[in-house]
TrEMBL record:
Coiled-coil region list: none
Pfam family, one: AFOR_C
GO terms, molecular function: electron transfer activity; iron-sulfur cluster binding; oxidoreductase activity, acting on the aldehyde or oxo group of donors, iron-sulfur protein as acceptor
PANTHER family membership: ALDEHYDE FERREDOXIN OXIDOREDUCTASE (PTHR30038), TUNGSTEN-CONTAINING ALDEHYDE FERREDOXIN OXIDOREDUCTASE (PTHR30038:SF0)
Name of the molecule in the record: Aldehyde ferredoxin oxidoreductase C-terminal domain-containing protein
Organism: marine sediment metagenome
Residues in Aldehyde ferredoxin oxidoreductase C-terminal domain copies: 1-278
InterPro entries: Ald_Fedxn_OxRdtase_dom3, OxRdtase_Ald_Fedxn_C, Tungsten_al_ferr_oxy-like_C, W-dependent_AOR
Length: 278
């Protein structure tokens, strides 16, 4: 609600988060949906007749709260915003390039131009534009200063994803990775099952889960083409910051990832040989 809607008033951001908490809706999806509507309004793609008279401009905290309440109540324009960015964009001509979602899930967390592993995670994530369900590769990139590299990012995202998936399976906090390291996980699992597990055993389980998720999406028609990002990240040069002038080299990154996973480069899906192996 802060950065996505241009709101600098902390009390307004907290109020919006509290409304979401009480209504049981996601703060990221709600905030991005309102921020997207604000950009559409400022670009003249929608007007007051569309927004129920709300002046949806960046920085207008009262408009943000009013829009959020309409989302919660599914009232007027809020009913459209409640469907999320992808659905909203489909009804607003000229908005697709800056509709910040992947596979229908709003992209929270990070500006990923200049952070190629994070950009790749957004694109290939089986659940869509999640910033964290495949780990937090952004932290490693920032620490190493390696964000603009391409080669090796597939392996980086694969390892990040497996680490997060294993912690989800064991039910430990993802933020505990610094203290609960990968070499410690086999001891936990071995104690649970009463038989020895190795790091390699666990990594195989993580990779198997990633392949099973992909097979589900494959059944539903997902292909390499769907592992994409909004046009803004692919075609618009980043206007400022350390990564000024950068876009995401997505096709190269996807090739690197599929190769690291042992998936088919043309379709982006697991090969029969890999599935037999797993």
């Amino acid at each position: 609600f802060g950065s996505e809607c241009g709101i600098a008033k902390f009390d307004a951001v907290i109020a919006a988060a509290e409304i979401c908490e009480k209504a049981g809706i996601d703060t990221m999806s709600a905030g991005l949906s309102i921020g997207f509507a604000m950009e559409c309004f400022e670009k003249g793609l929608i007007g007051l007749n569309d927004t129920d008279g709300i002046k949806l401009r960046f920085g207008n905290d009262e408009a943000m709260i009013t829009a959020l309440q309409k989302i919660v109540n599914e009232e007027g324009f809020g009913k459209q915003m409640a469907k999320g960015v992808r659905s909203l964009s489909e009804g607003i001509k000229g908005s697709e390039a800056f509709a910040m979602h992947v596979k229908g899930l709003e992209m929270g967390g990070y500006e990923c131009r200049g952070l190629n592993a994070q950009a790749l995670e957004f694109a290939i994530n089986n659940m869509g534009g999640s910033h964290s369900s495949y780990g937090f590769p952004v932290y490693g990139e920032l620490a190493k200063g390696s964000g603009k590299q391409v080669k090796g990012k597939g392996k980086e995202v694969k390892e990040s994803a497996i680490g997060r998936i294993l912690r989800d399976c064991i039910s430990v906090c993802a933020f505990a990775k610094a203290t609960l390291t990968d070499p410690q996980l086999p001891d936990m699992v071995s104690s649970l099952f009463g038989e020895p597990w190795s790091v390699d055993d666990l990594n195989t389980v993580g990779k198997r889960i990633m392949c099973l998720e992909r097979l589900f999406n494959m059944r539903e028609g997902i292909t390499r083409e769907d592992d994409s990002l909004p046009g803004r990240l692919l075609n618009e040069l980043k206007p400022d910051g350390p990564a000024k002038g950068v876009v995401v080299p997505l096709e190269e990154l996807k090739d690197d990832y599929y190769a690291a996973m042992g998936w088919d480069l043309a379709t982006g899906n697991p090969s029969d040989e890999l599935l037999d192996e797993l």
